[in-house]
Design a protein that fits this description.
This protein is mostly helical. It contains 14 helices and 2 strands; from the N terminus they run ααββαααααααααααα. Strands 1-2 form a two-stranded antiparallel sheet. β1 and β2 form a beta hairpin. α10 packs across α11. The chain is globular and about 70 Å long. The mean pLDDT is 91.
């Protein structure tokens, strides 16, 4: 256990910008946007989303807020949590992709693998420590920044509502879904397992290739093109895209959400009951085995 903790601390130290600093940078930027919107200095308008204080000049909007039920307020807060948290989750996704690509390649490039393999820790143990970082530790590391962002944003919004005499300061806090953080943690963990075939494929590329970016991208692209030309099919491409999307939105998932939302805890058995999930775990296991094999066979000079 001490060895595992040491290996995890090593990964976090080497990738602290991606896993520790980046979530707080994104959260701080998002909070700044929220504050600027509520003080009336800017607004956010996209094709599917609008965030502006102008809507609170509409008497119908104000009346609907004042007459809203506890469940309606909770739903509005959950929607806000999803919107505010999306940039952090996206940043986590890019951080995991970068980590997966570089973690085995860098140790070959700078020859630090010589030192790490001199320690009484097996290649299998080292590889699994990196998988634990990617699937369990990294998702947890964005939670503090996400909690900070959401709580200070709700505070900013509540202050604006109270000063503008729209609803009382406690309007949002009385309906705040505190236990949703448990759902978010489990949802993020499952998301890393859902995308594990992609993460482990990229790790494998970094473990054996001198050009891991090419090794990670070229084979899937060739496979997609061959499948399209030879069989007029897009099954592989569709499956690849699904692995990059939320697991609850997969076509194989038996429950359908009308809108993008954080999945319920009760959805976890539904995911475990799908063949596609376990196929992904099996494929990931093959990639993990190959990664361990290539790392154990490294000649320490395979990267110029």
């Amino acid at each position: 256990m001490k060895s595992l903790k040491a290996l995890i601390r090593r990964e976090l130290q080497e990738h602290k910008w991606a896993f520790i600093y980046l979530p707080w940078i994104v959260a701080s930027f998002m909070f700044l946007v929220v504050v600027l919107v509520f003080v009336g200095l800017t607004e956010v308008n996209t094709e599917n989303f609008s965030f502006s204080t102008e809507i609170y000049t509409d008497p119908d909007i104000i009346k609907s807020m004042q007459e809203s039920t506890l469940e309606e307020r909770k739903g509005a807060i959950r929607a806000g949590l999803l919107v505010l948290g999306s940039p952090l989750v996206i940043a986590l996704g890019f951080a995991l992709l970068a980590f997966s690509l570089s973690t085995f390649f860098d140790e070959r490039k700078d020859k630090s693998i010589i030192f790490w393999r001199s320690l009484p820790v097996s290649d299998t143990y080292t590889v699994f420590s990196k998988l634990i970082v990617a699937t369990i530790v990294a998702p947890l590391l964005i939670i503090p920044a996400l909690v900070f962002l959401h709580l200070v944003s709700v505070t900013a919004g509540s202050t604006f509502f109270a000063i503008s005499d729209i609803v009382p300061f406690t309007w949002a806090w009385n309906a705040y879904p505190w236990f949703d953080w448990i759902r978010i943690i489990f949802s993020l963990w499952l998301q890393t397992l859902w995308t594990l075939p992609i993460l482990t494929w990229i790790m494998l590329a970094g473990a054996y290739s001198r050009k891991p970016v090419v090794a990670a991208i070229l084979p899937p692209v060739v496979f997609v093109l061959v499948e399209r030309v030879a069989f007029a099919s897009t099954l592989f491409f569709d499956a690849l895209i699904e692995r990059l999307q939320p697991w609850s939105r997969a076509s194989s998932f038996p429950k359908e959400y009308e809108n993008l939302a954080v999945s319920e805890i009760s959805d976890i058995p539904l995911l475990f009951g799908t063949l596609e999930f376990w196929m992904g775990i099996l494929i990931s296991g093959i990639f993990i085995y190959l990664t361990i094999y290539f790392r154990s066979k490294s000649d320490y000079a395979s990267v110029e």
